[in-house]
User: What shape does this take?
Amino acid sequence: QGQLVESGGGLVQPGESLRLSCAASGIMFSTMGWYRQAPGKQRELVAAISRGGSANYADFVKGRFTVSRDNAKNTVYLQMNSLKPEDTAVYYCHARTISGSQRWGQGTQVTVSS
Assistant: This one.
């Protein structure tokens, strides 16, 4: 219960866009969002959003990425614009219940390369 299923990763050129989706099943989460992990680096927060729509972003994506959610579909999205090679990473969906229980998605690869 509380499985997260991601989709939308892929290979794009610098400056292009991608949209990630993450659908949750079975549990209503209070906070949903995205982390990423590049090779040899620690996993880091990209963006998160509450059920009420309050969002926060890492400084390195402000103005380029937008996180949103559809509570009726229990789905969170990450619209990524003006992608850079340094955005290349595995992107993980993350969700947390009001009691603090967490879930992670399986990860989706995003590669930005010319």
